[in-house]
Structure formats: structure tokens, C-alpha cells
Amino acid sequence: MNIEQLLYIVEVAKYNSLSIAAQNLHVTQSNISQSITNLEKELGIKVLKRSRGHGAVPTDEGRIILKLAYEIQKKLEEIKETANLLNSTEVGELKISSLPGLMTFLVKAIASFRHDYPYVNLEVSDKSGSAVIEDVRQHKTDIGLITYSSDLNINMEGIAFEALIEGKQKVYVSKHSPLAILGTITPHDILDQTLVTYKGEFMQYFV
User: Fold this and answer.
1) HEC profile of the chain
2) Beta bridge pairs of residue 156
3) Burial (CB count within 10 angstroms: exposed 0-12, middle 13-18, buried 19+), residue 154
4) 19 Cβ partners below 8 Å, 6+ apart?
5) CA 90 to CA 119: how far, in whole Å?
6) Does 193 score more than 70 pLDDT?
7) How far is Cα 98 from Cα 124, in angstroms, rounded to an integer?
8) Distance between CA 95 and CA 126 in Å, rounded?
9) Torsion angle in degrees (nearest 10) through CA of 25, 31, 33, 36
10) What does the domain layout of the chain look like in residue ranges?
11) Per-residue pLDDT for 159 more than 90?
12) For the structural domain made of 3-87, what CATH number should be given?
């Protein structure tokens, strides 16, 4: 018995298919089939019942073996992750300044970064757009995230920047509002409306 055989039966059982398992694991279907046959001979039980109509379906005994094989697979992944963390020698500090509204875009990136570089101290602060730019200009932060428009009178001299995403201004109204039936809202349509906005330089400029 070897680890490969256990990984094969877990992958086949996941999709009830030798062909899909072979494709996912980048091996030939015959290789998987022979490995599983050898494993079943060694264990003395049938792990998977194979048929053209139903594919490869675990037997009652096979379900018990598969449960143990799955646990072994998870332990192997845990060992690899632990080894990666132990091998990660990157140390230091990373500072990010951002507008409050952009923090939601950082959550997954920060989680991924912390996983890959556990010994790097990460500091994130939310500030106004002009404060973010000044932090970058004065080397108080490594990365700055702002909402930017070429119409805004913002001094970007000495700042290297690029667009990550493009957005549009949207107006949210009650479904009972007469504006709800309009596909597009013009500035003229909202002149006599009471607006609720967040307090930010870009939004103030837009209003």
C-alpha cells in the first residue's frame, strides 16, 4: 500500500469516475485502475464497484476505507502547509493605507498574505484620499489605495500608480420611488432629492 493509491481512491470516489480522477491528477486512467486493483488485492476487499452505467461507486467496506484514506489525505496537506510555514523565512513589515470603502477588497488578499508570510508584520490603516497619497509620498506606507478620477484636483506628482478596478457611481432608491422605474439616473433627476452619502473627498466632489 502506498500514499498514491489512497489519493487515487479518494479522487475516484469524489466523482464516481476514473476518467475524471485521471484528468484531475494528470495520470492515465489505466494507471489509476491498476493501482486501485493492486490495493484491493492487498487489502483483500473490494473498495470500488465499477460499472459502465454507474461509474465507480464505493462498496460498503470501501466507504470505511475511504473515510480513513480521506483523513490521511487531509493530514498530508496539513504536513505540507506546516512545512511551508517553517520554510518561510521572510520577515519584515508591510504598511497599507486605504480609503475605508476599499477595505472590503483587501480581506482575501490580507488573509492570503498572512498565510504565505506569517512572520511579516502587516499594518493596515484607513484614511482620506489625500492622507493616503501623503503617506506614500513621505514613505510612511508601502501601498496606498484610493478612489481616483482624472477630474479630481489631486497632486499625483512623484506617485507611481495604476488602476486595479473600475467602478461607476450608483444611486439606490426605494422600490416605491419614481426613480426606480428609470434605467439610468442623470444628475438633473436627483437635484431635488435628499441624498445620503459617506463623507469622503471623492463623494463630496461628485455631489
Assistant:
1) CCHHHHHHHHHHHHHCCHHHHHHHHCCCHHHHHHHHHHHHHHHCCCCEEEECCCEEEECHHHHHHHHHHHHHHHHHHHHHHHHHHHHCCCCEEEEEEECHHHHHHCHHHHHHHHHHCCCEEEEEEECCHHHHHHHHHCCCCCEEECCCCCCCCCCCCCCCCCCCCCCCCCCCCCCCCHHHHCCCCCHHHHCCCCCCCCCCHHHHHHC
2) none
3) middle
4) 29
5) 6
6) yes
7) 8
8) 11
9) -80
10) 3-87, 89-166, 168-207
11) no
12) 1.10.10.10
Q: Residue 158 pLDDT > 80, yes or no?
A: no
pLDDT at residue 171 tops 90 = no
pLDDT surpasses 80 at 167: no
Instruction: Read off the C-alpha cell for 51.
Output: 460499472
Are the CB atoms for 21 and 12 separated by under 8 Å? yes
Is domain 89-166 given the CATH code 3.40.190.10 in the classification? yes
Instruction: For cell 502506498, name the residue.
Output: 2
Distance CA 198, CA 205 (A): 12
Q: Please tell me whether the overall predicted TM-score, pTM, comes out greater than 0.85 for this model.
A: no
In this predicted model, what pLDDT tens digit does every residue of 47-97 receive, in sequence order? 999 888 778 999 999 999 999 999 999 999 989 888 877 776 667 888 998
